[in-house]
Amino acid sequence: MDRNDSSPIMSSSGRRGLFREVEPFSFGWLPAQDSHEIYYEECGAPQGKPAVILHGGPGGAVNPTMRRFFDPAKWRMALFDQRGCGRSRPNASLEDNTTWSLIADIERLREHLGVEKWTVFGGSWGSTLALAYAIKHPDRVEALVLRGIFLLTQKELRWFYQDGASMLFPDAWERFLAPIPVEERGDLMGAYHRRLTHPDRRVQAEAASAWSQWEGDTISIRGPEARPPKFNEVDFAVAFARIECHFFANAGFFDEDGWILKNIDTIRHIPTWIVQGRFDVVTPLDSAWSLHRAWPEAHFSIIWDAGHASTEPGIMDGLVRATDAALAL
After folding, report:
1. Distance between alpha carbon 114 and the CA centroid of its chain, in Å?
2. Of 77, 119, 249, 255, whose CB has the highest number of CB atoms within 10 Å?
3. Model confidence over 117-146: pLDDT tens digits?
């Protein structure tokens, strides 16, 4: 492939693949109003259409693949590691780490980069954060491109961390249960939260490994080989599991269960594309369907041969087509 060609790869099935690899043209650390410093980078065209890309988790981090869903000749992409994640500092910190502080960081980054309005792209927890940000700052969002809808409700958390997904992956579920004594398994999230916030790093690491492996084992219909490599790194696993469990144990810091759907009228006017895998076990189709029913104006695509991972062929195709469509706004 010509490295200067910005066209995405086309598969033999007619599905579109990712755009070429690109490197940041700028990066840095943005001080927050407290103890955090947020790592950010910009990629693509410096004078291009602005977009901000939100990683999943909570507790994940940006990676080079996330830059490739946008045409680098036409988009100015901003990516950042959320508090405690990736290259942001301090690593794995739970202090002042809430949905609302992350939304404030997005606004701080927008102002720092001199952007008036931008397209917001996010999958899984990134879709949660994108929707919450848009509800709080609808005048700053030109469009939304979302994947693997996660509304962070108690129903979704029970499905994945207590009873539901376990019936589809009983082998992986046994590994998830292993660090938790039988008498504590009635509240697995609480049991994990105690261990992931334990002062002993070894206790944290054991729990983090099992927590991260559970998500890695269920993320794709292509099997465990599709697990992101960083899930096997201790430092990444600890940050990922600590922050994710911290957010989930606190119900996403939302005022009430179902907060996103209850506030959807605030953003109904924003052009939006939703791409959802039919066999997504991590964030099941039911949540995306609920969002679709509440917001029929949004473009909605079910990918019949896909699970949760953004790198599954059908998901890549849907997201690349969505970012191209958003260019016309």
Report:
1. 24
2. 77
3. 999 999 999 999 999 999 999 999 999 999
Average pLDDT, the chain: 94
Residues 6 or more apart whose CB falls under 8 angstroms from that of 98 comprise: 247, 250, 253
pLDDT number for residue 2 = 36
Burial (CB count within 10 angstroms: exposed 0-12, middle 13-18, buried 19+), residue 200: exposed
55, 246, 292, 308: which is the annotated catalytic residue?
A: 308
Residue 301: name the closest of 147, 174, 97 by CA.
Answer: 147
Any catalytic annotation for residue 124? yes
Whose tokens are 């059908």? That residue is 314
pLDDT, position 46: 98
Q: What is the pLDDT of residues 199-215, one digit of tens each?
A: 999 999 999 999 999 99
Closest CA relative to residue 281, chosen from 166, 127, 152: 166
The domains located in the chain, with CATH, are 26-154+255-326 (3.40.50.1820), 155-252 (no CATH)
Neighbours of 98 (CB within 10 A): 17
The catalytic position among 88, 124, 212, 301 is: 124
The active-site residue, picked from 71, 81, 105, 280, is 280
In the chain, how many H helices and how many E strands? 10, 8
**In the block, which residue shows the tokens 């499905």?**
159
